[in-house]
Model the fold of this input.
Amino acid sequence: MTQDSAARIDAGRHAVVGVIVEEGQFLVIRRSPFVKAPGLLCFPGGGIEAGEDFPTAIRREFLEELHLPIEVHSHLWTSETRWGTRLEWMICSRQPIHEPRANPEEVSEVLWMELEHLIHRDDLLGSMPEFFRAIREGRLSL
Done:
């Protein structure tokens, strides 16, 4: 599949992104070799299924990707990818007794990283740099 045909498939898609920050570090994942954009860093998330609201969708995605039950606190931001997927960014948290465990079908690595270490990386999923710019510029507040 070419990048153009993949972009056409994603146009009009609606997805959720879950942001967890603990002690100044973001929970990020490295995408597995079995999903789109393998090897890139991003936040947990994915497509919204029929009948799901944003909180339900992001809770399902955290369970699928990281076996991690979460609490959803609020909607943070809406953005659109360059390939036409609308993203709903949600602020989430976890109970400290629950550790993220990667589902190897979707996630190859789980990382906790500070903003300053994330913003300069060249292996971020395309939606991430704009999110980090918005934080640094004060357009978003966690």
User: Anything to note?
Assistant: Helices lie at 3-10, 54-66, 115-118, 128-136. DSSP finds four helices and eight strands in the chain. The chain has a mean pLDDT of 92.
